[in-house]
Design goal:
There is one protein chain. Helices cover about 35% and strands about 25% of the residues. The chain is an alpha+beta fold and about 625 residues long.
């Protein structure tokens, strides 16, 4: 098996393409499907009649979720570069390509999506223009195919091109020690903990004793699956789900590695580094960095004997804040601490038996500021108060703080802007993730925890904790969805009993597809039912839009989505719509039509003018 990866700008149709090729929607989150935007890694299985098969990793296109993209990019061998015909390459397209040149991509196909939005005669010129915009990237000479996930145009040709490219990829080294970077962790009833990832090299078998890094805990593989099919053993290149029941979900996270015991954790590596051309002026002999190895993001320092002054390969040393494992030849990428710009990447050359990485030499005022912040603990200090306590001018304090943030010693939180020692924040982050892990394990059906619930569990003031949670979420280290915090890979999963309850509450009648349930009636039944976690499961379905409250009515999210589509189609054709027309459009009664149309007004989908509604005009 080989790994195909998607890349490209947000809203250029990556997920729709994967769905059209495989029949599997890679967007696991209901929120992703409702918003039409990938937030985290998605996976699908692609098989051909001649036995060739591949796993597809669909990555987020939005720059805010670049850390999630990097967590899945390490295993890619064949890249589907997705560019919309009506927009062409965007900055995020080029950023993805810049990152992927440092990883394991060996072959590329340029997929020009949304071809149905252009006239057939326009396509050749558009494809030529897109190719010109990809000059000097790893896609510059890639074969190109125009497709439409809506009409099916070009999909058969694309499948055949994918099959040809996969057949040319070399096999992974099955004789090497097993190395599997973990990108998802969850639990299944009766099985316990499941970890998933791309097996980068080696072979993994049922019954094998393997090590989790960086914890060093040894576990036994009880069972293996590849896209739902049980396996006794798997070889490098496979998308693997490994059942390791002897360890709790809360003890593992994305970024850890499941590997053969012969690997040793290290915090120092000799590397061959290739700088990104536009980042050459930012490089120094000592560079605080965010390093991406496997599925992990680890803070560290990249050192050179001499500052790289040109493109090419440069020898360096990578010191990490926490140990990990990496095999010689493994790829890595580094970004600046802040702003998170790409510096370059390369390969691990050798492991060095290391001690802690060197601490950047700081001027006296830096040490003074760190002493003040250390005494504050978790209480952030604004720059004026911090400067006074450190006996510094405010401007000098701010300049020193900026350097300390870049070097990774200080963290900045918002509302208002203030500063805290990173060590204290990291200790809090550990407490937060352990609590969230316990919650996601014990109540898999919940969205997570609110800031108030977390504050009570951790015995902290909510206002203080909320500032840190916002930073952790913005940094992509925890998920924040609809007011709830959760581990990044937490997918709310209702029990069979909970699902059956809600399915029965809003039965779908083909004769009256838009009839809702009574919200008070559902709530009364919910309180009377003796089903564990039912109230939180209801909150989850409402928060994610699977259930929608409209006044005293309760709809399925799919019903509301269908109504929305009908309203848009009608108004684009007719420009205006009366209440009576809306009622007839849905085949419903005025009792339900009035609050439903007012709900669309309140959300800015429609706008009322006298007795008619129109689509609200969108800026841009």
């Amino acid at each position: 098996m080989h790994i195909i990866g998607t890349a490209g700008h947000v809203d250029h149709g990556k997920s729709a393409l994967v769905t059209a090729l495989t029949g599997t929607n890679p967007d696991r989150w209901l929120e992703e499907q409702l918003r039409g935007m990938t937030l985290d890694l998605g996976f699908a299985h692609l098989c051909f009649d001649d036995g060739i098969e591949a796993g597809i990793i669909d990555v987020p296109g939005h720059e805010r979720f670049l850390h999630n993209m990097l967590a899945g990019a390490a295993g890619m061998e064949l890249l589907l570069l997705v560019v919309a015909a009506n927009e062409g390459p965007k900055p995020q397209t080029l950023e993805h390509l810049a990152i992927l040149r440092y990883l394991n991509v060996q072959r590329t196909i340029l997929v020009v999506t949304k071809a149905d939005l252009l006239e057939a005669a326009e396509l050749p010129q558009v494809v030529t223009s897109i190719r010109a915009g990809l000059r000097d990237t790893l896609a510059h000479d890639a074969p190109s195919i125009a497709v439409s996930a809506v009409t099916g145009l070009g999909l058969a040709e694309l499948r055949e091109q994918i099959r040809r490219e996969l057949s040319l990829l070399p096999a992974r080294n099955a004789e090497a020690p097993a190395y599997l970077p973990i990108d998802r962790v969850f639990a299944l009833p009766g099985l316990g903990t499941i970890v998933t990832g791309t097996l980068m090299q080696g072979t993994l078998g049922v019954g094998d004793r393997v090590t989790l890094t960086p914890s060093g805990k040894q576990v036994r593989v009880r069972s293996l699956q590849v896209f739902g099919s049980p396996k006794q053993s798997v070889s490098g290149g496979a998308r693997v789900a490994a059942n390791v029941p002897s360890i709790a979900v809360g003890e593992i996270a994305r970024g850890e590695v499941l590997a053969s015991p012969q690997f040793e954790s290290q915090d120092t590596f000799k590397v061959a580094f290739a700088p990104f051309a536009s980042s050459l002026p930012a490089l120094r002999r000592r560079n605080p960095v965010r390093a991406y190895i496997g599925s992990a993001e680890i803070l560290g320092t990249l050192l050179f004997d001499a500052i790289p002054a040109r493109e090419g390969i440069h020898a360096g040393t990578l010191h990490l804040r926490r140990p990990t494992i990496a095999y010689p030849g493994a790829s890595f990428v580094v970004r600046r601490m802040s702003p998170k710009l790409l510096l370059g990447g390369g390969t691990i050359e050798t492991n060095l038996t290391g001690t802690d990485g060197p601490r950047t030499e700081l001027p006296a005022q830096g040490e003074d500021i760190l002493r003040v912040l250390a005494a504050q603990g978790l209480e952030p200090l604004e720059v004026a108060k911090l400067a006074a306590r450190a006996n510094l001018r405010e401007q000098a304090a701010q300049e020193t703080l900026d350097r300390l943030i870049e070097d990774g010693y200080v963290l900045r939180v918002a509302r208002p802007l203030a500063y805290v020692e990173r060590a204290a924040a990291e200790e809090l982050f550990g407490r937060v993730t352990r609590q969230l892990g316990t919650q996601s394990r014990d109540e898999a059906w919940s969205m997570g925890m609110t800031s108030l619930a977390l504050a009570r569990a951790l015995s902290l003031p909510e206002a203080l904790l909320a500032r840190f949670l916002a930073h952790f979420a913005e940094d992509g280290r925890i998920a924040h969805r609809s007011g709830y915090y959760a581990p990044v890979d937490h997918v709310p999963t209702l029990t069979a009993e909970q699902r059956a309850f809600f399915e029965g509450q809003i039965p779908l009648d083909p004769q009256h597809p838009f009839t809702p349930a009574s919200l008070p009636g559902v709530l009364n039944d919910l309180r009377a039912a003796r089903i564990a976690g039912l109230s939180k499961a209801f909150d989850t379905l409402v928060a994610k839009g699977a259930l929608v409250k409209v006044g005293d009515d309760l709809y399925r999210g799919t019903q509301v989505a269908q109504v929305h589509a009908r309203v848009e189609q009608f108004l684009r054709a007719e420009q205006q719509m009366t209440m009576a027309q809306f009622r007839d459009l849905l085949g419903t009664s005025r009792k339900y039509a009035v609050p439903l149309l007012e709900w669309f007004d309140a959300r800015g989908i429609t706008v009322r003018s006298g007795d008619v509604r129109m689509l609200r005009k969108r800026e841009g």
